[in-house]
Design a protein that fits this description.
The complex is a heterodimer.
Chain A (H helix, E strand, L loop, with lengths): L2 H14 L8 H7 L3 E9 L8 E3 L1 E5 L3 E2 L23 E5 H11 L12 E4 L10 E4 L2 E8 L4 H7 L13 E7 L1 E4 L3 E4 L2
Chain B lengths: L6 E12 L2 E7 L14 E5 L5 E5 L10 E6 L7 H8 L5 E4 L14 E7 L4 H12 L5 E7 L6 H9 L3 E5 L8 H5 L6 E6 L2 H10 L8 E3 L16 E5 L5 E4 L22 E6 L2 E2 L7 H4 L2 E3 L4 E2 L3 E4 L2
Parallel strand pairs in B: 7-8, 7-10, 8-9, 10-11, 12-18
Antiparallel strand pairs in B: 1-2, 1-6, 2-5, 3-4, 3-6, 12-13, 14-16, 14-18, 15-17
Classes of the chains: A alpha+beta, B alpha/beta.
Chain lengths: 189, 309
């Protein structure tokens, strides 16, 4: 079934649920008023190489991160032969690292998930198709990231299965700028 | 073809290691850190002529911006060392695999003995550098060589510190491997790297040792996916008429774009026409599996599998 009719059906069911009368437009708006923080920033210039922790990153709208392997014009990432806008910058929840330890006893370092930005307090999986602020820069989430065997090969850790549906977020950069550790991540609402 | 991507390196230095040996130092083009390795690990070197050869890394794993390889020119070999010696120049680009393997060095053990035959000393140079750096001096490296030992410059500091015993079989008798291995110890590890005959003698001499305290350094291939049910089969491509033999447990070597390589993203979905695919993916519905499969993880239960390609 196409996504839209599925969603329409879901909303219809929600409307018919008497228990949800207590939900108002205001309360829905309040629910999307999250904000989080940039905890770590990483880049690497080529596939397979270790990610290097940075204090700040320079984001270029429509292109990527200066010095990173998926920056348009550089294209030396593992997936560069399959270009897509959402590779311009990728994000990962710090909370997932905690969950990996808690649920699977896997220690995964902030430099091992291979996404560029590690966030705290940001509901990344809710943001597909939405725009949000990362410090002074504006991003649009294109899709959830998908785990790949490549990362198991690099880390030597069995993390493919535990990372399904929480492997981060792929985004394109709508407005560039400098992103620093400690910057606020906030919704557009 | 799902071609192996490699780590791009540049030849930063080529030094003379003596006895027909060249020491190659590989670095990232931007001098970035290279993928980490364990003491005694090895890498595959992908040469431009299509050859892939495996060599031990000689340097300390904390020296993380260089891969140092010592290659002996084997005139009667299969061509890899000749190509490296004769064709590779400083500044040349070489693709290498991620490092694999390494010598296990449990911290609770109180001694380590390494036995190397000739150029087989290379993994133990990395191990020795690691042990000395962490303050472990309880090891000895026996180097058995015909004539002066290889890589004298790299061995010199270890000779000076009394960690190396050279057994020059031109100047003296061939050492008794049984004697070097000694009686089994519960708190020591012994390891060997060298010609097959030496490894055989070592394995025989160490058969009474606890298996976890014995290490033989072989250049192992990357691990294959474990599937005891996997069988070899012929993959037939209906449109192109091509037929491909697929070994048991091997993935289909097809020119199909793949992404996750784990059977969830669906990027490598193709239609199959005849045969009995073994799907192994976690993306296709039962209905989809009636017509499609994911190349990255699928196998075949039938001798022949026909794809709509």
């Amino acid at each position: 079934m196409p996504l839209r009719p599925k969603l329409a059906m879901l909303y219809e069911r929600e409307r018919n649920n008497a228990m949800l009368d207590i939900v108002t437009p205001e309360s829905d708006a309040a629910a999307s008023m999250w904000s989080g923080v940039v905890r770590h920033l990483h880049i690497t210039p080529r596939a397979f190489l270790p990610m290097r922790e940075m204090r700040e990153l320079t984001l270029v709208a429509g292109k990527g991160i200066e010095g990173d392997r998926y920056m348009v014009g550089r294209e030396e990432g593992f997936y560069s032969p399959k270009p897509e806008e959402g590779r311009q910058i990728t994000l990962f929840e710090f909370e997932t690292l905690i969950a990996l330890k808690r649920d699977h006893d896997i220690d995964l370092g902030v430099d091992e998930h291979r996404r560029n930005v590690t966030t705290v307090g940001v509901p990344l999986t809710h943001l597909v198709g939405k725009q949000f602020w990362l410090g002074e820069t504006l991003l649009e989430a294109t899709r959830l990231s998908i785990p790949c065997r490549h990362i198991e090969e690099i880390t030597g850790k069995s993390i493919f299965d535990p990372l399904i549906n929480r492997s981060g977020l792929n985004c394109k950069i709508l407005q560039g700028g400098i992103v620093r550790v400690g910057d606020v991540v906030r919704s557009m609402q | 073809m799902m071609a192996a991507m490699t780590v791009k390196t540049v030849v930063d230095d080529i030094a003379d290691g003596g006895a027909g040996i060249k020491v190659f130092t590989l670095v990232d083009p931007d001098r970035w850190e290279l993928p980490p390795f364990k003491p005694g690990a090895h890498i595959d070197v992908h040469l431009a002529n299509g050859l892939i050869r495996t060599y031990s890394l000689c340097n300390d794993p904390t020296d993380n911006k260089r891969y140092v390889l010592a290659v002996k020119r084997e005139a009667d070999g299969r061509g890899g060392s000749i190509y490296l010696h004769d064709e590779i120049k400083r500044g040349g680009v070489i693709g290498v695999s991620l490092p694999r393997g390494g010598v296990p060095l449990p911290s609770h053990l109180t001694g380590f003995a390494f036995i190397a035959g000739g150029i087989g000393v290379t993994p133990f140079l990395s191990v020795a550098a690691h042990l000395r750096r962490i303050g472990r001096n309880d090891f000895v490296l026996h180097v058995i060589s015909r004539g002066p030992p290889p890589l004298a410059d790299m061995l010199a500091p270890l000779l000076q510190s009394g960690h190396v015993v050279i057994h020059d079989t031109w100047a003296g008798p061939r050492p008794d491997i049984v004697q070097l291995v000694g009686r089994p110890l519960a708190d020591a590890l012994i390891a060997c790297c060298g010609p097959v005959s030496m490894i055989d003698a070592f394995e025989q001499a160490s058969c009474d040792w606890p298996a976890v305290h014995v290490h033989v350094e072989r250049f192992v291939a990357p691990p294959l996916p474990v599937d005891p049910q996997a069988r070899a089969y012929v993959l037939a491509l209906a449109r192109s008429g091509q037929e491909i033999a697929v070994a048991a447990g091997e993935s289909m070597l097809l020119d199909v774009p793949a992404s996750c390589c784990g059977g969830i993203c669906g990027a490598c979905k193709v239609e199959w026409l005849q045969g009995e695919p073994v799907h192994r993916d976690r993306a296709l519905s039962p209905a989809e599996r009636e017509r499609s499969l994911l190349v990255c993880v699928a196998g075949s239960a039938s001798e022949r599998l026909v794809l709509d390609l």
